[in-house]
Task: structure prediction
Amino acid sequence: MKFFADTADVADIAELAATGLLDGVTTNPSLIHKSGRDFMEVTREICALVDGPVSAEVVALDHAGMMREAEILRKIADNVCIKVPLTIDGLKSCKALTSDGTMVNVTLCFSAAQALLAAKAGATFISPFVGRHDDNGFDGMQLIADIRLIYDNYDFGTEILVASVRHGIHILEAAKIGADVMTAPPAVIRGLVKHVLTDKGIEGFLADWAKTGQSIA
Ligand code: E4P
Result:
């Protein structure tokens, strides 16, 4: 499963990238606002930090406007992935952009039927928002399972990018279903490593090691 960081915080991305565990980054207009940075400038910096896809979202709602903005965004770097909303104009833009060799992430997916349309439009990634789905009384993980089944039935190449991830259980469940990618806030990714028994184990080993009076040199 590929791990993307869902943030526009360059320092956080640099720290995660240094672990070698980061496969890409997703941003959205809200995350750009939170960063307080210039969209083009921060996207350029993020693209230089990671080798994998960096999603940058268009804000136009019509096809011509989306294509205009995509043209500007894709010049930033080769690893820019254009993010479009799951609307008819978004799907039309997705088809045009992917036919031209540009990576496209179709975002704001809340149903398996929408995911089917995105795959037919040739999307590189489909982003079902599990957290927001759960928040509204739906079962986010059932959505991922349904999309996996449909994509496998027809051998669609579109990758399932589990988005709006709130905690480690979302990541674990998505991995069990066989989602291709997940994107999560850096704090959630870092949280995966924590286990009280790991900390306790290290403490115990170090205490006993100190008693040996030895050093590794
Ligand atoms: C995905 O690409 C989105 O940026 C993101 O996962 C949305 O998450 P949220 O529901 O926490 O805003």
Q: What stands out?
A: Residues 6, 26, 28, 107, 127, 129, 131-132, 163-164, 183 surround erythose-4-phosphate (CB under 6 Å). The two ends are 37 Å apart (CA to CA). The mean pLDDT is 98. Strands lie at 2-6, 24-26, 54-57, 80-85, 104-109, 125-128, 159-162, 181-184.
